[in-house]
Amino acid sequence: MKDILGTALLDYYNNNYSEDIITESTISEADEMPLPYLFRSYKEMPVIEQKALQLAKGKVLDVGCGAGSHSLYLQNVKNLDVTAIDISIGATEVTKARGIKNCFNQNLFEQKDQYDTLLLLMNGIGICGKLERINLFLQHLKSLLKPNGQILLDSSDIIYMFDQEEDGSVLVQANKYYGEVEFTMSYKGEASATFDWLYLDYNTLQNACMANNLNCELVTEGDHYDFLARITRL
User: Fold this and answer.
1) Does residue 46 lie within any of the structural domains?
2) How far apart are CA 18 and CA 8, in angstroms?
3) Exposure string over 104-118, b if 16+ CB within 10 A, otherwise e
4) What's the domain range around 59?
5) With 135 labelled, which of 69, 124, 199, 233 sits at a CA distance of 20 to 30 A?
6) Around 69, how many Cα atoms within 13 Å sit in the side-chain half-sphere?
7) CATH number of the domain enclosing 43
């Protein structure tokens, strides 16, 4: 697969920034993902992300680290033991270059160590792909938790993106969960393969956690249907 994200991050880091990543999905038109935003400082982060970083403790796994902005704050400001992983080779190269000591080009399911905090930000639950995979996904996350560990993740309820009827009902596909989305990314004339991405409303996440013997707590909500959840063992 083409490493669209990694190529763009490397360009920005190496001062070759000339355009942004373009994303398209089954629920939205083409949209820009500004590269500077992926290199944001703590002060530039949304409140939800700031709160998650405040709550992070102990040995941390930053899943889908991107350019490493969250890991940098945890390692350099909070002095935590951080491991950053991403399936993008370019992303991990940038994260290492920015100073993260433990950074690996790795799929989440390759992880076997246990952590005090699992961090899945920027809709990190999205890598689950489809709702039918949520039990397997949560069970693997649970296996990576130390006894008093926590999972901090954010997501969005995207029901607002669908047409609403006069009676208040919403038109969604009958044969799948409305938060299942297919994405492509393109950059400088190159395009990624289509990939699955999952947005979860809080009630669905909470029910999935209960089914997997996990406690799910709503920590805070953002300004645009997004929320931060803290998940722990029962």
Assistant:
1) yes
2) 10
3) ebeebeebeeebbbb
4) 4-8+24-159+189-233
5) 69
6) 21
7) 3.40.50.150
Give this prediction's pTM: 0.94
Token duo for residue 20: 């942004």
Specify whether the CB–CB gap between 104 and 88 falls below 8 A. Answer: no
CA–CA distance, 231 with 149 (Å, rounded to integer): 9
Q: Report how many domains make up the chain.
A: 1
Burial 137-157 (b: 16+ CB within 10 A, else e): bbeebbebbeeebbbbbbbbb
Q: Which residues contact 205 (CB under 8 A, 6 or more apart)?
A: 125, 155, 216, 229
Q: Where are the alpha helices (DSSP H) in the chain?
A: 4-13, 47-55, 69-76, 89-97, 134-143, 202-211
Task: Going residue by residue through the chain, which has 234 residues, state the pLDDT in tens, using 9 for 90 and above.
Answer: 799 999 999 999 999 999 999 999 998 889 999 999 999 999 999 999 999 999 999 999 999 999 999 999 999 999 999 999 999 999 999 999 999 999 999 999 999 999 999 999 999 999 999 999 999 999 999 999 999 999 999 999 998 887 666 665 666 666 889 999 999 999 999 999 999 999 999 999 999 999 999 999 999 999 889 999 999 999
- Measured in Å, how far apart are the chain's first and last C-alpha atoms? 39
CA 30 to chain centre: 20
Q: Considering only CA atoms, which of 12, 80, 73 is closest in space to residue 42?
A: 73
Integer Cα distance of 127 and 195 in angstroms:
9
